[in-house]
From TrEMBL:
Protein name: Flagellar basal-body rod protein FlgF
An annotated GO cellular component: bacterial-type flagellum basal body, rod
InterPro entries xref list: Flag_bb_rod_N, Flagellar_basal_body_rod_CS, Flagellar_FlgE/F/G, Flg_bb/hook_C_dom, FlgE/F/G-like, FlgF, LlgE_F_G-like_D1
Lineage: Bacteria, Bacillati, Bacillota, Clostridia, Lachnospirales
Domain Flagellar basal-body/hook protein C-terminal, residue spans: 218-261
Length: 266
């Protein structure tokens, strides 16, 4: 094995992975509540190189030292920092100011329900007065969010024929009377959140729900926290790193060609 070829190859694979994540960020730059992702690089463990058939050292092959076989894909992380607000003046558009998530009862294609979490507050109200996402999933009230319980009793219900005011603490007011409470939750450790789709999250085993300190801003939406300019600059960096690894492979290939076809001639 020619170490230079393998090192350049692993570098190209890593840059391809970084580019996939970067393009996904750019594709979701206008997705409400989307949180950008990033990657980390990790080197392979050092390996001990030895000289084959050299027994100059007693009872062992001669050591040449440690070598590293290049880079490998580390973990993918998510940046949960808050995005900017866009004012829509739609009473059912809600943005979270601070750490926390809306809880929704998600229904899959098989009709199975589960509790998901999101920062996307672009809601609507159906003909029966239930607050829903644009995909038709019910928004949970405080009891449902806190106890991760779905069902009609845990939905946010209002009178669709009356004006609605949603206070910063999530209280749903109509005619100066509180008719509901939007459920907000937070998590002790975001490493126990798993992405589901574009802007939904699953709480995996080991997650611990805590009270959210976020405030609700009615008539606003939280936009993606993707900075398009920064992503484009990083994309150029990735492209140049990929091309550098390509040149290494070309150089090594040319060196091997000369070694075999020129130097190796008798």
């Amino acid at each position: 094995m020619v170490k230079g070829l393998y090192t350049a190859y692993t570098g190209m694979i890593e840059e391809m992975r970084r580019m996939d994540v970067m393009t996904n960020n750019l594709a979701n730059a206008s997705t409400t509540g989307y949180k950008k992702e990033g990657t980390v690089n990790q080197s392979f463990d050092d390996q001990l190189a030895i000289k084959i058939k050299d027994r100059s050292e007693v009872l062992r092959a001669k050591r040449l030292g440690d070598v590293n076989l290049g880079v490998k894909v580390g973990e993918t992380y998510r940046d949960y920092s808050q995005g900017s607000f866009s004012v829509t003046d739609n009473p059912y558009d809600l943005a979270l100011d601070g750490n926390g998530f809306f809880a929704i009862e998600f229904r899959n294609k098989n009709g199975e329900t589960s509790i998901k979490y999101t920062r996307d507050g672009s809601f609507t109200v159906d003909q029966n007065g239930y607050l829903m996402t644009k995909d038709g999933d019910y928004v949970l009230n405080a009891n449902g969010a806190r106890n991760t319980a779905g069902g009609q009793a845990n939905y946010v219900h209002i009178d669709p024929n009356q004006d609605v005011t949603i206070e910063r603490n999530g209280a749903v007011m109509q005619n100066d009377v509180q008719v509901g409470q939007i459920g907000l939750v937070d998590f002790e450790d975001y490493n126990y959140l798993e992405k589901y789709g574009e802007n939904l999250y699953d709480a995996v085993a080991g997650s611990r729900i805590t009270a959210s300190t976020a405030g609700i801003e009615q008539g606003c939406l939280e936009m993606s926290n993707v900075n398009i300019v920064s992503e484009m600059v990083d994309m150029i960096t990735i492209t140049r790193a990929y091309e550098a690894n390509q040149k290494i492979i070309t150089t090594v290939d040319e060196t091997l060609d000369k070694a075999v076809n020129t130097v190796g001639q008798v």
